[in-house]
Amino acid sequence: MDSVFRGSLFGRPVSVCTQCGKQFTHRKSYLQHLHVHTGATTCSTCGVTFDRKTRLNTHVKLYHPELTRQPSHLRARGPVLSAVRGGSASSGGGLPCPDCGKVYANSGSLSQHRRIHSGATLCRLCGTGLSRVAHLRRHLITCHRLSMEQALVVMRGDDT
After folding, report:
1. Structural domain includes residue 149
2. Which pLDDT band holds residue 118 (cuts at 50, 70, 90)?
3. Are 136 and 155 in contact, with CB atoms under 8 Å apart?
4. Which of 107, 158, 151, 110 is nearest to 133 (CA)?
5. pLDDT digit string, tens, across residues 65-91
């Protein structure tokens, strides 16, 4: 996919995407844009298209968390990590979560993870489990479109 040179914008050369006609003043921006046409930045669940893969990943984590329980690009943080460090849960090289079996390299990480199972960071609106209170607050504000005050009320569990 080549771009077509079409004059200048504010004194800068302009490239135009031959697929959609979008104009770019920077080659890097144009090359990043090409992912839109390959499908590499389109959500396979809902079809929303993003300009960057990182924005697609963020979207999937926020709006389709069931797909991100252990995404392939993060699997090295679970059982593979303990194997790399010289063991597995069965050989004593890692600390498994007694609730789900996910393996952690240290007790702090396991303790942080276990908050998901305790319900301390469970979204009362949709049931999504998050590992930190700050992440729950961000989830309520971004996914459920609550104000900070509304998010705090939901987190406290006030029924007023």
Report:
1. yes
2. confident
3. yes
4. 151
5. 777 654 444 433 333 333 333 333 444
Q: Which residues of 97-125 are buried (b: 16+ CB within 10 A; e: fewer)?
A: beeeebbbbeeebbeebbbbeeeebbbee
Q: Say whether both 130 and 105 belong to one domain.
A: no
Q: What 8-state DSSP symbol labels residue 47? A: -
Residues 88 and 103 in one domain: yes
Instruction: Tell me whether residue 49 is in a domain.
Output: no
Neighbours of 15 (CB within 10 A): 20
Residue-level pLDDT at 55:
83
Q: What is the pLDDT averaged over residues 105-123?
A: 82
Report the domain count for the chain: 2
* Domain span at 156: 124-160
